From TrEMBL:
<dbReference type="InterPro" id="IPR005263">
    <property type="entry name" value="DapA"/>
</dbReference>
<keyword id="KW-0457">Lysine biosynthesis</keyword>
<feature type="active site" description="Proton donor/acceptor">
    <location>
        <position position="142"/>
    </location>
</feature>
<keyword id="KW-0704">Schiff base</keyword>
<keyword id="KW-0028">Amino-acid biosynthesis</keyword>
<feature type="binding site">
    <location>
        <position position="54"/>
    </location>
    <ligand>
        <name>pyruvate</name>
    </ligand>
</feature>
<dbReference type="InterPro" id="IPR020625">
    <property type="entry name" value="Schiff_base-form_aldolases_AS"/>
</dbReference>
<keyword id="KW-0456">Lyase</keyword>
<comment type="subunit">
    <text>Homotetramer; dimer of dimers.</text>
</comment>
<feature type="binding site">
    <location>
        <position position="210"/>
    </location>
    <ligand>
        <name>pyruvate</name>
    </ligand>
</feature>
<comment type="pathway">
    <text>Amino-acid biosynthesis; L-lysine biosynthesis via DAP pathway; (S)-tetrahydrodipicolinate from L-aspartate: step 3/4.</text>
</comment>
<dbReference type="GO" id="GO:0008840">
    <property type="term" value="F:4-hydroxy-tetrahydrodipicolinate synthase activity"/>
</dbReference>
<dbReference type="InterPro" id="IPR002220">
    <property type="entry name" value="DapA-like"/>
</dbReference>
<keyword id="KW-0220">Diaminopimelate biosynthesis</keyword>
<feature type="site" description="Part of a proton relay during catalysis">
    <location>
        <position position="53"/>
    </location>
</feature>
<feature type="active site" description="Schiff-base intermediate with substrate">
    <location>
        <position position="170"/>
    </location>
</feature>
<comment type="function">
    <text>Catalyzes the condensation of (S)-aspartate-beta-semialdehyde [(S)-ASA] and pyruvate to 4-hydroxy-tetrahydrodipicolinate (HTPA).</text>
</comment>
Length: 303
């Protein structure tokens, strides 16, 4: 086992893919980001992903991305692993962001499959290996074909596992058969990339979750993961059933960053629910649907 793989526990088991808070006029609110990071860690997160998909990274400038890395590191560095979302569909750009993140002192990198370009599997492998070789940081691959248009094939992932810095996978494609093969043939550590499948993933061997619903139900997800690790399947099932309408509210009604910001506003965690175009805030019908889901879970807000 390589030195990088020995660092895997430092990446955490409950990671929230943080939203990027904005001011009312659309600027990144670094103070709110720091406060949110502190709350998430206090409530049970031992890792945070900064400016991933939910962090609206595709509409942030490089300086805004780097500013978020600094703000979160200053707020909770040493208390939780900080994973920087530095993957883009441009390998050279991803290398640049990754190297800048490393200079800031980030603990790891989340690299998404290159989107839109639609490369071959050879291109996918070369993309990941080039970025992974650009720093000494541990890398978590992000397999999400619903957004990237291509999946990481099992053979590609098995090959990537040979790279000393590629140590983990955030899986958002739910191909359990493919993942079983990769788990059996490599030391890659898997994380659920689908909030609603956390129990299923962990039962199969994943170590935890990189989630969005974890913004609004952090402590219950912490309890779910701890219950699985304690082999208390009955408790884990009960919490999983309880969380289902919360996951539905956060992940299925509108885009995840949009829903998470709206709920965090209702919870009084964020002062607003501002997102950047092309994302828009939920309309009244969507708001009522989200509120209905949350009420089903016993989360009713007088707003």
């Amino acid at each position: 086992m390589s030195d990088s793989r020995a660092q895997i526990p430092a990446l955490g088991t409950l990671l929230t893919a943080m939203v990027t808070p904005f001011t009312e006029d659309g600027k990144v609110d670094y103070d709110q980001a720091a406060a949110l990071a502190e709350k998430l860690v206090q409530d049970g997160c031992d890792g945070l992903v900064v400016t991933g998909t939910t962090g609206e990274t595709s509409t942030l400038t490089d300086e805004e991305n780097l500013g978020m890395f600094r703000a979160v590191k200053e707020a909770v560095g040493g208390k939780a692993a900080i994973i920087a979302g530095t993957g883009t569909n441009d390998t050279a750009h991803s290398v640049h962001l990754s190297q800048r993140a490393a200079q800031i002192g980030i603990d790891g990198l989340l690299i998404v499959t290159p989107y839109y370009n639609k490369p071959s599997q050879a291109g996918v492998r070369a993309h990941f290996e080039t970025i992974a070789s650009s720093t000494d940081l541990p890398v978590m691959l992000y397999d999400i074909p619903g957004r990237s248009s291509i999946a990481i094939a099992p053979e590609t992932m098995i090959g990537l596992a040979k790279h000393p810095n590629i140590v983990a996978v955030k899986d958002a494609k739910a191909d359990f058969a493919a993942a079983t093969r990769v788990m059996a043939e490599t030391d890659l550590v898997f994380y659920s990339g689908d909030d609603g499948l956390t129990l299923q993933w962990m039962a199969m061997g994943a170590v935890g979750l990189v989630g969005v619903t974890t913004h609004v139900a952090t402590r219950r997800f912490r309890e779910l993961i701890d219950a699985v690790n304690a082999n208390d399947l009955a408790k884990a099932r009960a919490i999983n059933f309880e969380l289902e309408p919360v996951v539905r509210a956060t992940m299925t009604r509108v885009q995840g960053a949009v829903a998470a910001k709206q709920i965090l506003k209702w919870q009084g965690v964020l002062p607003n629910s501002v997102v950047r175009l092309p994302l828009v805030e939920p309309d009244e019908a969507e708001i009522q649907t989200i509120r209905g889901d949350l009420a089903e879970a016993g989360m009713d807000f007088n707003v």
